[in-house]
Fold this sequence. Notes:
mainly alpha
Amino acid sequence: MTPAELARAMHGVIEPVHAILYFAAEVQERYAVMGLEPRGQGYIAGRAAPMGPVGPEVAAATFYNFNPLLFQQALPATWSVASPDDLLTARAAGIEAVYERVDAPTDGLEEATELAGRAVAACSFEGRPLAAANAGVELPGTPFADLFQRVTMLREYRGDGHIAALVGEGVGAVEALVLYTGWQDRVSQRFLQKSRFWDDEAWGAAVAALQARALHDGDGLTDAGRALREEIEQRTDQLASRPWAALGEEDSLRLWDLLAPLAAALNEGEAYPRPYPLPSRPG
């Protein structure tokens, strides 16, 4: 497998292991105890915390496809309730708790953390703010949370590159969501509008902008639109390939094999609102 192919394959198993941060009751409960609304303030501040007490403009820019009004409501007010360090502590404790609750396997956990650490060490962070911020977070010192922190850095490394690819193609925040819904069939327009806080007017404007570029026909993506979205994903793979080139195919797939049971345990333990689609083993 090429490094770019490895990058896409690894994303398939890294994403569910990382994304439990946004769904686990154990994390949300800790945010609520701190006095935060879990889905809004908790999500934004919990994800932004590695960057320090940033304002809404920085968070909106780095998250990219959320309505900026959401950030203005959450920041900087949240930092007066809970500091970034408080949130990092809370999310690490919540992650440790959810993996323990679902009885996630511990065999190979130390090896997985070491392999992920080697991948992280190979990364270069120019133009990658969320990845760089997460790379600077000290490991919490507990097994599942340590692995989560390293996996999260790799996830945000890919995400930062994806945003660079979108910006390079002149694709705006809502346009990116419209392209994504037309490119895959797992996540719906309704979910993306609701979770990213975009109304029908904003969605319609994004469709119109893509129509003006012959990327959308009003009902769905054109062939050109689908081709552009696949090109963006391929470019994202290329931009995410550095850590996997350094780790090599054998060790990358070994990490895949160690992460997959964790993702499966989260599904089996009903840690997500609905089962998270898991990929087949690559190679």
